Amino acid sequence: MTPDELRDVRTTLSKRWGLDSPLSLAEMAACLKLRGKFPGASMRDYERGKTAITGPLEVAVLGLLAMDEPPEWAELFED
């Protein structure tokens, strides 16, 4: 998966899940359960190619793409 493909996933998921706008970096990080002080910054680094996209990250992203709605643990999407 390339950084550009990863960036496009945020838009693809938002459309699939019926959201009004593309997932933010922080929302995508929450879906992937990224940890650390600034998970959104980690997503940004992946999308810019600053940090290599690992196999496990790619598998997690592909898993999200297979979901028809946001994962239960992504609390950012709850009303």
Beta strands, count: 0
- Which descriptor suits the 3D outline? globular
| Low-pLDDT segments, ≥5 res | none
Strand-residue fraction?
A: under 5%
Element order, helices and strands?
A: HHHH
Commentary on this structure:
This protein has one domain (3-68): 434 Repressor (Amino-terminal Domain), CATH 1.10.260. Helix content is 53%, strand content 0%. With 79 residues, the chain is mostly helical. It has helices at residues 3-16, 25-31, 39-48, 55-65. It is globular, with a radius of gyration of 12 Å.
In short:
By secondary structure, the protein is mainly α.
What's the topology here?
Elements: H1 3-16, H2 25-31, H3 39-48, H4 55-65
Helix pairs in contact: 1-4, 2-3
Keywords:
mainly alpha; 434 Repressor (Amino-terminal Domain); 0% strand; 4 helices; 79 residues
